[in-house]
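Support request, please re-run this one:
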Amino acid sequence: MSPTQWDLPPELCCRPMAFVALTGLDVTYNAIHRAIWDAFCANRRADRVPISFKVLPGDHEYPKCRTKRTSYEWYIPKGILKTGWMNKHLNLVPALLVLFYELDWDDAVWKEKQSECATKVEIVRTSLQGRNTKVAVVLIQKKTPLPPGEDLVASERAASLCNACDLSGKSLFVLPHTDHLVGYIIRLENAFYEHAQTYYYTEIRRVKSHKEFLNKTTHQLLFVRHQFKIAFFSELKQDTQNSLKYYRTAYSLVHELRTHETNMLEIKTMAGFINYKICRLCFQHNTPLDAIAQFRKHIDLCKKKIGSAELAFEHTAWMSKQFQSFGDLFDEAIKLGLTAIQTQNPGFYYQQAAYYAQERKQQATHLCAHEASVSYPTPDHLETPSGALDFYGQRAWRQGHQSIDPPHMEKEKGGILALQMKEKDVPHSELIIALLSNAVAQFKKYKCPRMKSHLSELLDYVMCDYRTERWWSLLTSILSTALRCSYLMAHVKDYITYSMELVGRASTLREEQKSRIEKNLIKVLMNEVPEAEPDCDQASAKAAQALWSDRMSLAGSNEFTIEVQDYVPFVQCKAKFLSPSFHVDDPVQLHVYLRHRGKCHPQFFHTNKFKT
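Re-run finished. Output below.
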């Protein structure tokens, strides 16, 4: 399923790692350079420092650094967080830029090589355009270096090179290309990591220094923005304890913002982002109860922040995504070793996400039911010149607008209409089914039969839509899931009902699959235990067999009434009079035709003195 506006951005969900750019390496045509690059990026074990490496050309252009602001006196922020900011610091602006250069201490043309290296360093510094990124040089050498202090020529030339390149001694490294390359690389990246730590520490101090210039009247958005940035830089620095502290502060500040209809979505979006970060870090710190408490607080604070009544489906979509994302985090934590229990497992969050997805569908059906004559607005108010929003959670047609009233009512109406018409194309039923399936899987995993049974009832809700809209392949898929659920819980009536529909004309199952289901159906009708459904794990199937044995032993002469008018039956019926007209009190003859799985069986019924 393609990403939607409610999906969390990947740069928010990933683990932030220090970004180090490597330049001067020709990994395509130089075998030594390729071996160095492979040693950096191949088979990175968990015990190696968390760094994201990229090889870039020496003249690569990095994002321009804006002029440093000296005063905030007349500055009015246009939003909370720019959409490109996280990606910029994860993938575009390096904490450290490392220049690799082939140069031995005893090189015959040392002076010329030193001058060339200094020029390359200057080009790199110019390309960084005033950023605080650290610069380091690694000399690729053929020989293994002597112990420190024993090679006087090396010491002298290292000092000369540092002076020519304007580097500190801690920023010049030697990499001998020997049999112990990986060992040298690990030592190098540990040193790189220390430089990156210093860079992020400097960035944190830089952001903190703005605080004294802000006031709480016009700069409320900046207080949130700066706390988020400090927290994110702390994550890049791997200081997760301080990161959690700053995210908590940012979360409190975002709920202190004055809310109105025009900024409600932006506030909820940022609250959702920060909540995700807090919960993720709590799970990472092995404090799941803190994560659960934070999430409950988040839902309590946001569930009534609906926004525009005409776009109420957006709120339920957002709420659904909050529960789904927390369920994903919970599930990920369990895979990493956290213990879940019956009363607290990811299934409850997927279930709630499904409820909100159902409510979203109902709201969309009501709010997006436009006349056939209503067409998508032109120009498209959801388009932006860059193809993306400037700030998270803002409207495309009024970006940067922070006042209470919309600036252009016609644009506002056009934007709302465009969103409503886009919502009509959302595959709501697919979203609901995916969430319900996740929930059922979790409840099955943690042995919650009542919850699993309850969710199975919700499958019926989805089936109604598929029957009405004649989506036979989807109906078959969900019927198969429902049949499996009813088998595992030994629900006899449901099992019979789903079996009857799956062997019918609407089912897209193969003939051999229908035959298998039909045989099982006959077994149940004969008070015998059916065979296990496919894709049931062995333990669950064994437990189900015991349940069925109990049901069958107590069945006696049970009778079930199946309301076939609500289903696509496996038997088709039609009647035909044998004459176009009859006289009063004359016997009437008619034929009744029954069709079952493509075979037609005529049955003859006679009536006497049929009154007309």
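The beta strands are 18-23, 51-55, 96-102, 134-141, 172-176, 571-577, 588-596, 599-607. The CA atoms of residues 224 and 254 lie 6 Å apart.
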